[in-house]
Amino acid sequence: MDNNKKYSSATLCVQAGWTPSKGEPRVLPIYQSTTFKYDTSEQMAKLFDLEETGYFYTRLQNPTNDAVAAKIAALEGGVAAMLTSSGQAANFYAMFNICQCGDHFVTSSNIYGGTYNLFGVTMKKFGIECTFVDPNASEEELQKAFRPNTKALFGETISNPGGEVLDIEKFARVAHRNGVPLIVDNTFPTPINCRPFEWGADIVTHSTTKYMDGHAVSVGGAIVDSGNFDWEAYPDKFPGLTQPDESYHGLAYTKAFGRNAYITKATAQLMRDLGSIQSPQNAFLLNLGLETLHLRMPRHCENAQVVAEWLEANPKVKWVNYCGLPNNRYNALAKKYMPNGSCGVIAFGLEGTREDAIKFMDRLKFIAIVTHVADARTCVLHPASHTHRQLTDEQLREAGVAPDLIRLSVGIEDVNDIIADIEQALS
């Protein structure tokens, strides 16, 4: 592709990342090799010293993975991206790349249960603390959570599973006022419906397992850097990026790699040492999903809008949270950040008890009870009983998950069939 031309997201989904030369495969190949050959010892030495770019071991970089990462970076409007083995790994690497023992970060409390546990429990064992904040709080309230050792602010564009919409500009203002980057998990809307960099976010993460793959066949994650955050402006706050790295002969990432410093460090240091690489086979499958992402997302949103309106009108349904509904508290934010649609995930609660929710799900025919979310097939989950079952009711509410919340991920089937299955299960 002509990298100087600005292509639409639809074209980037199909064309970005892999540009074959004469006689090369038109379709991105799977480089199913752990290692790569060089002619001289010096060539290999320069790769290990980061003096030249190239491939030598798939744990660090692989041509298939790099092509797919480049496509995702182009879709988000970033300078560079890195694939990981899962969305969990992406969020961990994104934060651990700038935090170390003794550091602190601030995060929205309305985030995926696995991320909530990663940040609040597991990273604490690394000596990294976090403060959970209500994303709907005022800037003044958010500011109170910051400390001198705070290194980042985190949030989800649309929270999983609650469906709350993040005010990205508000979060960006608070982060930048404190000299830290805003990291946003953009899994649910994908860059087709929302590009957080355009609203002030600095780093974006994805669970590519969801809509990007779209077919529930490959687990993966991605980190994308906008290249906009000025790490050099805060050298004492981010020494890992601005000071010499003794494990690379005293190389300083910001000085050696400029706007690519963050992703280069994440690849050369974290992936080197922790190894959560995405397999080339999974990256290949992810690329197939990305090629139709721009076609699938509008269908997910259209179907979800119809289903959300039907649920809202049903007397057996107690409440519905879908930002596409005109009277929804997040409708204005959704129109601002996602004017073309949000995602296919609806949160709702039934009149009755938690047991009634379980009975409803058990009666569904083709809508399946699965842990997964955001693929071509409509599926359902009760987070309090499944993904978030380690949390108390109080912690559930703090994470934006009502104990009676049912997460419905609306697929791309015929919407009349989806509604008919829900209707027979309710009756």
For the report, how would you describe the main beta sheet?
Answer: 7 strands, mixed
| Cα-based radius of gyration, to the nearest Å | 22 Å
Summarize the helix and strand pattern as letters: HHHEHEHEHEHEHEEHHHHHEHEHEEHEH
Report the β-strand fraction as a percent range: 5-15%
* C-alpha termini separation: 54 Å
pLDDT below 50 for ≥5 consecutive residues: which ranges?
Answer: none
Strand order of the largest sheet: 1-7-6-5-4-2-3
Helix and strand content put the structural class at alpha/beta
Helix count from the secondary structure assignment:
17
Helix content: 25-40%
Task: Note the topology.
Layout: H1 9-15, H2 41-48, H3 63-76, E1 80-84, H4 87-96, E2 104-108, H5 113-122, E3 129-133, H6 139-143, E4 150-156, H7 168-177, E5 182-185, H8 190-193, E6 203-207, E7 221-225, H9 239-242, H10 253-257, H11 261-274, H12 280-290, H13 293-312, E8 317-321, H14 331-337, E9 345-350, H15 354-363, E10 368-369, E11 379-381, H16 393-398, E12 406-409, H17 415-426
Parallel strand pairs: 2-3, 2-4, 4-5, 5-6, 10-11
Antiparallel strand pairs: 1-7, 6-7, 8-9, 9-12, 11-12
Helix pairs in contact: 1-3, 3-12, 15-17
